[in-house]
Each structure stands twice: as structure tokens, then as C-alpha cells.
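Can anyone check this?
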Amino acid sequence: MTYDELVTWCGSERMAYFLSTQLDYRNMTELQLQNAVIALLVLMKQRAARKRGEPVELEYLGGQRRDTLRP
């Protein structure tokens, strides 16, 4: 995937630039890229919750991972 394709895939050059600094998108399939973006989003959610002192638990619903905050 080229950078221009990544921009189109993201819908935003700002988001594409961020991902290009975090991921080796050139050597990924679209499915691998989707999974990597999901992993980054979950990691960011976990960090934000930990800063607030809230535990985060991951659930699998219908074979898909879903993060939820648990008080």
C-alpha cells in the first residue's frame, strides 16, 4: 500500500501520517492494517483508562474483541 492509498483508506491525511509513523503499512495487507489500527485504538483506550484509575477488561463478542470499562 502506498502513502496515497493509506490517505484514501483513512479518509484523512492527518490520520494517515500518524499511522505511517507507527506502522509498517507498506508491507501489510488491508486486513493486517485493520487489525493493527484496532490494536492501537485498544492500547490508547487502556492507557487513558489507567491514567484515570479505571480498570479495562476486554470481552469477545461474536468472535470479535470489545473493550469495556469496568468500575
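Reply from J.R.: I decoded it. The longest helix spans residues 30-51.
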